[in-house]
Amino acid sequence: MNEQWVEQYYSNGIYPIISTILRALLGWLPFSFGDILYGAAVVWLLIKGVKLLQFALNKQLFQLDFKSILRRGLIWILLIYISFNVLWGINYNRKGISAQLGLATGKYSVTDLKDLTAALLQKVNESNTLLLQTKPAGMKPYQIFDRSKQAYREAVKQYPFLNYHQPSIKSSLWGWLGNYVGFLGYYNPFTGEGQVNTSVPGFIQPFTNCHEIAHQLGYAKESEANFVGYLAATNSKDPDFQYSAYLELFIYANGNLFYTDSSAAKAFVKQLLPAVKLDLKNLRQFYKRHRNPIEPVVRWVYGAYLQNNQQPSGILSYEEVTGFMIAYQKKYGKI
After folding, report:
1. CA distance 175 to 155
2. How far from chain centre, in Å, is Cα 116?
3. Structure pTM?
């Protein structure tokens, strides 16, 4: 699919209209309508599965019209696939944020990676110090949602293409499940809603909110949504949002550095402030408490989905935001 055509006619033409209408229709609801649809779909599949099992146990499978069942199934799959792409999925083929900012993304050196990690280390410590000085009370989900919208209102002053109309960001009804299968948030292309797992540690939620809003704005690839979320969160006047974004990007950059220079990566971690190290420790413990044999399977399936949507690195696509950050740092001399 032609990237220029998608960027001009879909991502900046048709899609903003579709997404704004969807958010206007369902954004006012205090709960996620999309989550209810997903839940109903799962229940329907379970009922059909139980009925099929009953037929098998009663040796009545020969009574079923498998051709008709297969035909209806294929029709439903085709309708869902077409709807997914028309409502959002075509964005996977756009030119994206690198073209909008004129970033020269591509291969980078270990030195580039060290420079970025060092800059992020400084920002993490500075924002954490500011956060401790202001001593803000823990934010409730609705407060994070409101401040996420404000973060984009600030970001649009510098990046006009990040204009966010008709906000629709909500708590996931399945957050408890997300803790076990490993999701922090997700976008529902059929309803236009952005869902955030609000049961995870609070300090990572602001960045997750900004990431999901980026998906709503048409940045489908995870690396791009991470970068756009970073631009929004760091333009926020809230130290919570700045700290959340800088810490998340430090984790990605330092993780990439570990593969090429583990000694340097460990040295950077040692320079984190004690309060930051405590947050990382609490995050590790949170994931450890919810570790289970199902999560690797879910991650594999999701990785396969990403690979089939212009993201060959699969689940590691999130970490590719590092390339955007290095290109941005080289062009603007800052992060």
Report:
1. 28
2. 22
3. 0.94
Angle formed by the axes of helices 321-332 and 239-260, nearest 10°: 110
* Residue whose pair of structure tokens reads 């055509």 in the numeric block: 5
Q: Report the percentage of the chain scoring pLDDT > 90.
A: 72
Let me know if residue 27 belongs to a domain: no
- pLDDT for 136 equals 65
In a domain, 198, yes or no: yes
The 10s digit of each residue's pLDDT in 261-311 is 999 999 999 999 999 999 999 999 998 998 888 877 777 787 777 777 777
Separation of alpha carbons 103 and 325, rounded Å? 9
Task: Locate all alpha helices (DSSP H) within the chain, ordered by sequence.
Answer: 3-5, 15-26, 33-57, 66-87, 97-101, 110-134, 141-155, 175-181, 205-216, 222-235, 239-260, 262-270, 274-289, 295-307, 321-332
Concatenating the DSSP letter of every residue in 239-254 gives HHHHHHHHHHHHHHHH
Could you tell me if 244 and 205 are in contact, meaning their C-beta atoms sit under 8 angstroms apart? yes
**Sequence-separated (6 or more) residues with CB below 8 Å from residue 209:** 144, 145, 148, 169, 185, 194, 196
What total of structural domains would you count in the chain? Answer: 1
Asked if residue 51 belongs to a domain, the reply is no
Lowest mean pLDDT among 66-70, 140-144, 190-194: 66-70
Q: Mapping DSSP to helix (H, G, I), strand (E, B) and coil, where does residue 95 land?
A: coil
CB 242 within 8 A of CB 234: yes
Give SS3 for 188: strand
The conformation of residue 273, written as its DSSP 8-state character, comes to: -
d(CA 161, CA 12): 9
* Residue span of the structural domain in which 177 resides: 92-332
Kindly state the tokens that stand for 153: 């209102």
Distance of CA 191 to the CA centre of its chain: 16
Distance CA 120, CA 44 (A): 47
Asked whether residue 46 is domain-assigned, the answer is no
Q: For residue 294, what pLDDT is reported?
A: 80
